Amino acid sequence: MIKHPDPRPLTSDPLKFLAFMLLSLVMFSCAAADDIPRPHDIPPVETAEIDRSLLRGLDFLLTHQRKNGSFGSPLNTKKLNIYAPGTSHEGFHVGTTALCLSALIEMESWLATFPEEPETETQNSLLARRERLSESITRCEKWMLENLPRLRRSAPTALYNVWGHAYGIQALCRMAQRTPRNLSEEEITARKEEILKEIAHQVELLRRFECLDGGWCYYNFTQSTQINTGSPLCFVTGTVFVALAEARAAGVDIPEHLITRGTASILRQRRPNNAYCYGEYLTKNVADINHPAGSLGRTLVCTLGLSLWGEHDFITQELFADSLDRFISRIGWNDIGRKRPVPHESWFQVAGYFYYYGHYYAAGCMEKLEDPVLRKKYANHLADILLGVQEPDGSWWDYPLYDYHPYYGTAMAMTVLVKCRSSL
Prior knowledge:
Shape: globular
CATH topology: Glycosyltransferase
Low-confidence stretches: 1-11
Number of strands: 0
Number of domains: 1
Distance between the termini: 15 Å
Order of helices and strands: HHHHHHHHHHHHHH
CATH class: Mainly Alpha
Radius of gyration: 21 Å
Number of helices: 14
């Protein structure tokens, strides 16, 4: 696997510093350009290496799950914390737990593909993990069904609940597809009906907290009104679109106006070079964050979200490949922002929390490719990157967000690796 170097050299040598600044200027100019770089060939990633990585990630989640079944907490703070008024942490907590639940259910299906040979030590270990995983999912599902329905706007200025509704829908959809052991047919039917009813409820809450101009956001610093007057953010709307597509596939009706208005909002933020502005309030701004390198973590989710809800002439197989090429080739720009404690302080104003988020939706775009050879190519690249940044304890994290980051990061990375392994 390729080890990415630390892009933040420190030196007291004036000549070396000047050379570094000149090189940075050249790289900055290249990253701001609209040309599409292509990733170089890399050796094939061994599926056994992915398996070991996934098991380490699973062990981390199983070991750190809270007693009530959830993941994460607001207990780990730093000097500069994300703005979190009112009940903001309920949004963080539900969103993080929903991502973990989705990942655990994916892992349960993945572990089921391994042959059972109890006489070997390795299989005994897998059998033990299966038991722990099943119990973990049961507790997590119980927590979600108790807490997700109560999730609401944190304050007039903060709508972190939107993340919880979106990722909550995805977790519920996976719950609906899952059949727990030791349940009768009547209990399975009742369970699915309850889950589908809650998915519909979450869709209704997304309708309630939609932006006045269409789409969704998580801040509203304009007017403290019942209707959300905040500026729509393309990547938040893309996130919601992906979740709503899963809800539709589960049989839940989606109000057409949510899609029509949300699509218009995303398209208003799209640039001709397929970069997406950070939000509608920046569409007439030449800020670095609106350039292709600053949009790396947003382009894929917007492209994927739009592709799931209608035909668009510009969304083609070539565009999916080009977007993945750009994301993989320029992963260094996202990596520079990874683990920085201050959001948007990095080059092109990249924030650390776009790192695994970007991979999460890159995997979704990868699955949209019809050519299995291309899918394998990008799966190999994404897996190689993620294997190289896994932490010694088995987790993945990109931004210190209270005590939520190692859980949402691990959940996203594991979900991507499961998809990569399937394509490989």
